[in-house]
């Protein structure tokens, strides 16, 4: 039987964290001739993930530029992909999630009549401006894709509401596969301050904040609340690995700079990030990935957004939507820092997003789709 030519396409840090284990799984299995193409919508933050997982792309479009616009990313990726697809002629391309790379990758494949598999399919807020532009990207990719790999049963229901019912598989999220390989008991951080904290007695709050829809007033509100938390609770240490976006860098310096217990540090490599998450007291974030990882590690999360496309952990009680208003963020954090019982209620490990087997299921579903195995894999959680 001839091998199935599958090409993974990704470009940003979160896509890389979630696609690296899948790229590795595909290259290990005999049914596949696996290729990897990166747009490098992110450069340093992407390369860091590729290094940790030892993934070597076959194609690198190297498109990133400072303060790139959405059109810059989309046009450069679309044009770059054209040459790659003409040369490699894959049987299937796999894109992930909801970034501009995801959209451009799927569109480029469609223009070449190459089937598309969408990993992390079916997440929705039903507000096209939040998250922006991600909600529209994932809807458009949902319309293009032939295979849809949903992390949860709820994601499958979302697709069914859009009449997408064939080629849909519930697999779990590949981020949980990634997490199982990175967290270890005795971990030494390369950032010295992270080795100096007394994690058992100090309340280390891990922060990330980068989303485009939070630029401006919401980000100012969030950061003002964070500074108030540091001032009001002397037993806290706030650690914020700041995203390399110049907009985010400027806001972080303006609102959070110069405070003794607020540590603005460079982005962490993914193994450092996961191990810090495993040791911290609380996570405050607008990131999608952290909302999935922290519950698996038993850490409460306050989401610094108005909505979330990941309601499963909110319903399980370990994630709370804090919004983007200063007072509410401060109030919810203060409660978790002073009310032990409330904290314990949220600090429970739950795994609504996966069991570490998502990559195996996705690879199995592709093999089945191309007639190379008799049955599809069992669904996650079912
Ligand atoms: C992108 C995704 C977003 C995802 C986020 C993860 C889109 C539209 N947005 O947003 O969905 O949540 O990545 O982090 O696809 N930069 C660097 N080096 C890097 C990475 C970024 O210097 O390694 C700087 C560049 O100046 C770049 C800017 O950050 O222009 C913004 O990067 P971009 O990918 O456009 O947007 P993100 O906000 O990162
Ligand atoms: N991450 C990381 N280093 C950091 C911040 C985040 O490795 O300094 C990881 C995080 O653990 C998760 C992914 O990057 O796996 C999330 O990326 P990001 O928050 O940039 O994007 P989002 O998930 O919001 O799309």
Structural commentary:
With 382 residues, this protein is an alpha/beta fold. The chain contains 16 helices and 13 strands. The chain has helices at 13-28, 44-53, 70-88, 100-111, 134-144, 153-161, 174-182, 192-196, 217-232, 246-256, 270-279, 288-296, 312-316, 326-338, 340-346, 358-369, and strands at 4-10, 32-38, 59-60, 92-96, 116-119, 147-150, 168-170, 203-208, 236-241, 262-265, 282-285, 301-303, 319-321. It has a seven-stranded parallel β-sheet with strand order 3-2-1-4-5-6-7, with helices on both faces. Strands 10-9-8-11-12-13 form a six-stranded parallel β-sheet, with helices on both faces. β6, α6 and β7 (168-170) form a beta-alpha-beta unit. α1 runs parallel beside α2 (44-53) and α9 packs parallel to α14. It starts with a strand and ends in a 13-residue tail after the last helix. The structure holds uridine-diphosphate-N-acetylglucosamine and uridine-5'-diphosphate. Uridine-5'-diphosphate binds next to α1, α11 and α12. Uridine-diphosphate-N-acetylglucosamine binds at residues 12-14, 41-45, 66-68, 70, 73, 98-100, 133-134, 210, 212, 243-246.
């Amino acid at each position: 039987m001839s091998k199935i030519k599958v090409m993974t396409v990704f470009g940003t840090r979160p896509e890389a964290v979630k696609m690296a284990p899948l790229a590795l799984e595909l290259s290990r299995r005999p049914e596949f001739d696996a290729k990897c193409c990166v747009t490098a919508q992110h450069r340093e933050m992407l390369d860091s993930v590729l290094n940790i997982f030892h993934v070597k792309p076959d194609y690198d479009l190297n498109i990133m530029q400072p303060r790139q616009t959405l059109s810059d990313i989309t046009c450069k990726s679309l044009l770059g992909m054209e040459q790659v697809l003409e040369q490699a002629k894959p049987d299937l391309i796999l894109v992930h999630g909801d970034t501009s790379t995801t959209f451009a990758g799927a569109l480029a494949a469609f223009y070449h009549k190459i089937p598309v598999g969408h990993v992390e399919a079916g997440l929705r807020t039903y507000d096209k401006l939040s998250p922006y532009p991600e909600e529209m990207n994932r809807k458009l990719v949902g319309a293009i894709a032939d295979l849809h790999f949903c992390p949860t049963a709820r994601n499958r229901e979302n697709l069914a509401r859009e009449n997408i019912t064939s080629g849909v598989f519930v697999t779990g999220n590949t981020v949980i596969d990634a997490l199982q390989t990175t967290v270890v008991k005795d971990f030494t951080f390369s950032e010295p301050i992270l080795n100096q904290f007394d994690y058992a007695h100090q309340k280390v709050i891990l922060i990330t904040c980068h989303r485009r829809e939070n630029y401006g007033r919401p980000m100012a509100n969030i950061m003002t609340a964070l500074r108030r938390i540091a001032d009001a609770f002397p037993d806290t240490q706030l650690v914020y690995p700041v995203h390399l976006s110049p907009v985010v860098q400027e806001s972080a310096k303006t609102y959070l700079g110069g405070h003794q217990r607020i540590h603005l540090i460079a982005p962490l490599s993914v193994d450092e990030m996961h191990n810090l998450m495993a040791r911290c007291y609380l996570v405050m974030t607008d990131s999608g990935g952290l909302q999935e990882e922290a519950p698996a590690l038993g850490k409460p999360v306050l989401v610094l957004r108005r909505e979330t496309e990941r309601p499963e952990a909110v319903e399980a009680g370990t994630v709370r939507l804090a919004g983007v208003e200063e007072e509410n963020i401060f109030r919810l954090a203060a409660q978790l820092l002073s009310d032990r019982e409330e904290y314990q209620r949220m600090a429970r490990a739950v795994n609504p997003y996966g069991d570490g087997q998502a990559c195996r299921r996705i690879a199995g579903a592709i093999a089945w789709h191309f007639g190379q195995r008799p049955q599809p894999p069992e669904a996650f959680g079912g």
